[in-house]
Give the backbone structure.
Amino acid sequence: MFIVGVITFILATLHISINCVRMMRGYVDHSSLVGGPVGYLGILPQWDNVFKNTIYTAQSIVGDSVAVYRCWVLWNRSFFVVSIPLLMVLGSAVSAVMAFVVSVKAPPGTTMSESSLDVWIKIFYVLAVAQNIITTTLMGWRIAAADNQVATYRLGRGNLIPVLRILVESAALYLTAQIILLVLYLCDKNAQFIALEAITPIIQGITFNAMTIRITLRSQSQSSAHTVEIATDAHRPTIGSMPLRHISVTVTQTKHTDYDTESQSAREIK
C-alpha cells in the first residue's frame, strides 16, 4: 500500500502540474492566436493534452486495481470472485491504450465527439463505473457478513462495521464523481472537464490515502485503549496470560423445616 500511495501521489502531482502548464500556454502564449485559449486546449494530438489524459487513465486504472486487490484479499484470495472486476480493469486498460492511439493520430481540428475516440472514452467510463459498483458491493457484503457471524460471540461493539463505513464512504465519493463525469460526458456538457480534473485528486487524496489513514488511526486508537484496559486489569488474578473478569453470581437457598405436629401441640397445652 505504501508503494501504491507513492505512485498515486506522483501521478496526481504530474497531473496538476501539466494542467498548470496547459493553462499558462493557453491563456498566455496562445491568447492572441487564432482560436485563442479554447482552440489550443481543444487540440487532441497536442503532446500536453495526450500526456494529461495518459496520467488520468493511469491514475484511474491504479485506483481500480487497488479496489480489486482489496476485494481479492477480503474474499480469501479467490480469483473466481474478482474475475469480472479484473476483466473490467483489463478492458479499461485496453480502451485507454486505444484512446491514446486515436488521439495521437487525430488530425488537427478534430474534436472528441467527431472521432472514434468518443467510443473508447465511453467504454472507459462505463467500465470504471461498473467495476467500482461491483467491487464496493463485494467488499461491503463480505465485511457485513463477517461481522454478523461473530456478533453472537463477541463482547461489546464490533470493529468491522466502522471499517465498512470508512470503505463505503470513500468508495461512494469516488463512484459519485465517476457517475457525474459519465453523465456530463454523455450529455456533452462543458462541466465534464471540471469533473474530469477532480477525479485524479479524489483517487489519490481521498479514496486511497484518506481511507488508509482513517483505518490506521482507528487501529492505533483501539490498540491504545486495549493497552489501558490491560494495565487497569493487571491486579486481577490470571490463569496463564488470560486476565480474569469479575462476574456476578446469584445463589438461591431454600430451607425446609420439619417438626412433629403432635409433640408441638402437647408442649403448648402443658
Notes: The chain has one domain: 2-226. The beta strands are 238-239, 242-243. Residues 234-242, 261-270 have pLDDT under 50 and may be disordered. The longest strand covers residues 238-239.
